[in-house]
Design a protein that fits this description.
Helices cover 43% and strands 10% of the residues. The protein contains 20 helices and ten strands. The strands form two sheets. The protein has an eight-stranded mixed beta sheet with strand order 3-4-6-5-7-8-9-10, with helices on both faces. A two-stranded antiparallel sheet has the order 1-2. Helix 1 runs parallel beside helix 2, helix 9 packs across helix 20 and helix 15 packs antiparallel against helix 16. The longest helix has 33 residues.
Length: 563
């Protein structure tokens, strides 16, 4: 009631607020100057009007209880119009001119217009039961004139120019609707002259902006949840206690052996460290198709991963080469940070060219197996055979996920590595406990000597980011369609679609915790035109070249020498 300007006629001017004073002056048909007036000016103007003219008895409804004790009608419950005999038909509001006794409200005087409208409407509704039809019609006309004077009604009139010939009927309920619309669209602006007027918040604008705030909240909550989970997981990277270390089966086989030769070659605009073993009695090339074996390592590992197989195969008469993969040494990290698979295929071709090798047996483990498979599709004439260890054919990775949902859980780390910065921090903390946990989860046994060698590799500058770059730049190309990929990723994906006319050996560990061994039974299709042979080692995991070195060496030697 205070906001709408409705007041008790018995109230003294000093007891009224600004809206009530304006409403009382308007009810007495006292013109209010357009200049800013404070409360004291309105009180003086109202007292002056009292001394000059008595108050009209029916202009403002009383807030005191009626004779029956019923409360006065609320703004939204003004009674409907009188019977049809008192309802008057008018021209459209566009033709109604503002009343001379009710001034058009300025933007800073929104409450005055609303107050006068409510007072006039309430008076018309209160006297509708006892007044003659002519008087009710006059009250309705006066109310419509007040509403037509508002900017809202003026805009509505301009919008209705196309229907000037249409006549409308205005009853009390329609008046109430117009009053509500004016009330919703004309909020009083806080000025110095309205310092004591209570403000109503803009509910409509607050509701409009609520959707964006809700989206921002959920996005922030999700990002924080992922960050907390990553930090929690990294904090648990302790040395696993459920796996047992074992002593190297043949500690005399080491890279310090005189048969192992370390060298650095320049290929594909990078420097590649590599280990070579030259046989004392080279095998006849005609017997195996090639007398050289190329080993490509994976993650998390280094180019010393195949030392047992290198020693065994060199004893069988093969020349063995094991280069460090791109990024796994500070001297072979590209300046542009390009770790797409097609670049590694180019690295392998350049290394063979630098060593003057025309045909080799290609053996790859983990990421090395994927690169070896693409190289054989790219340069099949230079490949005597292909051996894929721990990784099957991944051309239809999504199909493999559907056929074996367990692999999605096994591949959690590939999704974790897509995050920025956090994986780098998680891998290096607590002396690379993250890598030790992966070795323990993926395999059955590991030696401390092997882990120390891997730690030394990942301690070098830039190696961690380079190793994670393999996942960030190549995982999506195995899932997304080609038109969503960049040029380098598209070239790599195209190699996966080519037929592979190279005989292939696939070796899997039955207890592999990284790649489900059941995928080897369904992954290889008709693309391998020369045939695929799958071997499964029962007591080995992901790193079968360390866990069962003699078995792996025997499988390789048998495969190389077979027709």
């Amino acid at each position: 009631a205070e906001y709408m300007g409705v007041c008790d006629p018995a109230m003294e001017p000093e007891q009224m607020n600004m809206n009530q004073l304006r409403s009382a002056l308007t009810a007495r048909d006292v013109p209010i100057p357009q200049t800013k007036l404070n409360r004291a000016d309105l009180v003086a103007l109202y007292k002056k009007s009292l001394s000059e003219q008595p108050a009209a008895p029916t202009r403002a409804p009383s807030l005191t209880p009626t004779a029956t004790g019923a409360p006065p009608p609320a703004r939204t419950s003004i009674p409907a119009a009188a019977p049809s005999s008192s309802t008057t038909t008018h021209q459209p509001r566009a033709s109604v001119q503002p009343s001379s006794t009710l001034p058009v409200s300025s933007p800073s005087r929104g409450p005055s217009l609303i107050s006068s409208t409510v007072v006039a409407t309430a008076a018309a509704a209160t006297t509708s039961a006892t007044s003659p039809p002519a008087r009710q019609t006059a009250k309705v006309r006066e109310t419509e004139t007040s509403i037509s004077s508002s900017p809202v009604a003026a805009r509505g009139a301009r919008d209705d120019d196309s229907s000037t010939n249409r006549r409308t009927t205005l009853d009390a309920s329609e008046v109430t609707g117009h009053i509500d619309a004016s009330f919703d669209q004309q909020e009083p602006e806080p000025t110095e002259s309205h310092a004591s007027t209570s403000q109503i918040p803009d509910i409509k604008s607050r509701t409009t902006s609520g959707g964006g705030c809700l989206k921002l909240f959920f996005f922030t909550f999700g990002a924080v949840a992922v960050l907390i989970f990553a930090l929690w997981f990294a904090a648990r990277m302790e040395k696993p206690a459920d796996r047992t270390s074992f002593t190297d089966t043949n500690p005399t086989i080491g890279l310090k052996d005189g048969r192992f030769v370390y060298s650095i070659i320049f290929a594909n605009q990078l420097k590649f460290p590599l280990w070579q073993v030259f046989p004392k009695h080279p095998i006849s090339v005609g017997d195996a198709g090639s007398g050289t074996v190329l080993f490509l390592h994976g993650f998390p590992d280094n180019h010393q991963s195949f030392k047992h197989q290198m020693y065994d195969l060199s004893s069988a008469g093969y020349r063995v080469i094991a280069p460090a993969m791109r990024g796994y040494d500070p001297i072979n990290q590209p300046a542009d940070g390009d770790y797409h698979l097609i670049r590694m295929v180019e690295d392998v071709a350049a290394i063979l060219d630098e060593l003057s090798l025309s045909r080799v047996h290609v053996v790859g483990h983990d990421w090395g197996a994927i690169v070896a498979r693409l190289f054989c599709a790219h340069s099949s004439a230079r490949c005597a055979s292909l051996t894929m260890m721990a990784i099957p054919e991944l051309k239809d990775l999504l199909k493999l996920f559907v056929q074996n949902p367990t692999q999605i859980a096994y591949s959690w780390y590939t999704f974790f590595f897509q995050l920025p910065w956090i994986p780098e921090w998680a891998v290096v903390r607590k002396n690379f406990a993250f890598i030790e946990k992966l070795w323990a989860d993926w395999g059955e046994r590991y030696s401390q000597e092997r882990l120390d060698s891997v730690r030394a590799t990942f301690t070098a500058d830039g190696v961690v980011s380079a190793a994670l770059g393999y996942y960030r730049q190549n995982i999506l190309q195995l899932i997304l369609p080609s038109f969503l990929l960049g040029p380098a990723a598209q070239q790599s994906k195209q190699l996966l679609q080519l037929p592979l006319p190279v005989r292939t050996l696939a070796i899997s560990g039955a207890r592999d915790g990284c790649m489900d061994t059941r995928l080897f039974d369904v992954a290889f299709g008709d693309q391998f035109t020369a045939g695929v042979r799958v071997e499964r080692i029962p007591d080995a995991g992901h790193f079968m070249q360390h866990e069962s070195p003699q078995v792996v060496s025997r499988l390789l030697e048998t495969f190389f020498s077979s027709a």
